[in-house]
Write a structure and sequence with these properties.
This protein has 13 helices and twelve strands. It has about 350 residues and is of the alpha/beta class.
Length: about 350
């Protein structure tokens, strides 16, 4: 098969980790007989520098014309340190999600045996943890009306959800739960928030339509605690935008490194695949960035965009082998020999090529 992939490296370490993800994609395509054409676009601070827009029209057109998008990261200290900036790199990511209709963010959390002791949690708590977080992406407080009044001394952010927005993300969550272990946890704050009460009402109405899925409900503060106390209790977790943003970053500690967490954003148009870490501009160009999350995002690209499970599995096996062999960047080296970003990517690509 032939595929067209849009590359949006973005800012900071984004170009470096995407470069290594491409090596893995190329190795898999060579092994399984696929061909791929890459086209690079601009997003984030680099796009602002280029044309004043963090998600320019030509980048959107590229995404719409592609079969999948492989994205790095956005963010730059010039904007982080300027609270008055009207145009920000992160607006590019939000605009991309909105314009592509990417209403669901999928973040699998899976522990690798070689890293079980790197988690701040005890090995017996994290070993075997394997769950999927589904975060609603295009509604809620991040997209509601916001502003300031009283000469700027009062600020507000409005959280709004419609029934249709809630139904479509819950339908996706039920579908993925049915494909996994049949357990769905709906996370909300229904004892306080009206939007959460709508989420819970809709979930309760939909549950009888999915008798193969066991549904439970959990307040977000309790969910935050249970993720740490007993992460193996979860199978699929679904929640709204702001809660999902916080909980998925919390869940990153379970794996032992945020540098291993990949994600997919899916919806109406072209699906997007990205590591969940930020742009880490302080490390840009130093060859120390961990590329594994970007490489695992490429595995999700094969699985979720193209329906090619064997190809995704080949990448995951190569990543696991690199961890077992100690071919890791300095964040995982524990004072031992650290490999560069490029060396890790080269090793994984070679492993894929050698294990046909």
């Amino acid at each position: 098969m032939h595929y067209n992939i849009a590359l949006l490296p973005g800012d900071g370490i984004g170009p470096e980790v995407i470069r290594e993800a491409v090596k893995a994609v190329d190795a898999v395509c060579a092994r399984f007989g696929h061909t791929v054409r890459y086209t690079t676009g601009w997003v984030g601070a680099c796009a602002i520098d280029r044309c004043g827009n963090p998600y320019p029209a030509e980048t959107h057109a590229l995404c719409m014309e592609s079969d999948a998008v492989l994205f790095g990261a956005v963010g730059d200290p010039r904007y982080d340190n300027d609270p008055t900036a009207k145009v920000r790199p992160e607006q590019g990511l939000l605009a991309m999600r909105k314009q592509l209709g990417l209403y669901a963010n999928l973040r699998p959390v899976e522990t690798f045996a070689a890293l079980a002791d790197k988690s701040p949690l005890k090995r017996e708590r994290v070993e075997g943890a394997d769950f999927l977080c589904i975060r609603e992406l295009t509604g809620g407080m991040y997209f509601g009306e916001k502003g300031r009044r009283d000469s700027g001394d009062t600020a507000y952010d409005t959280c709004i959800y419609s029934r249709s927005e809630v139904e479509r993300i819950l339908e996706l969550a039920f579908t993925y739960a049915a494909r996994r272990r049949g357990h769905l946890t709906v996370v909300d704050k229904a004892n306080v928030l009206e939007t959460s009460r709508l989420w819970r009402q809709v979930a309760q109405e939909m549950a009888p339509q999915h008798p193969d899925v066991q549904v439970d409900y959990m307040y977000v503060d309790n969910a935050a605690m249970q993720l740490i106390r007993d992460p193996k209790a979860f199978d699929v977790l679904v929640t709204e935008n702001t809660f999902g943003d916080i909980l998925t970053d919390e869940a990153s500690c379970i794996t032992g490194s945020m540098g291993l967490l990949a994600s997919a954003s899916v919806g109406a148009h072209t699906s997007l695949f990205e590591p969940i870490h930020g742009s880490w501009p302080q490390a840009a160009g130093k060859g120390i960035a961990n590329p594994l999350a970007a490489i695992l995002s490429a595995a999700m690209l094969f699985e979720y965009a193209f329906g090619l499970g064997a190809e995704g599995k080949a990448i995951r096996q190569a990543v696991a082998a690199s961890l077992d062999a100690g071919v890791v960047t300095e964040d995982l080296a524990d004072g031992g020999k650290a490999s560069s970003t490029a060396e890790v990517g080269d090793w994984i690509a070679q492993f894929i090529n050698d294990n046909k």
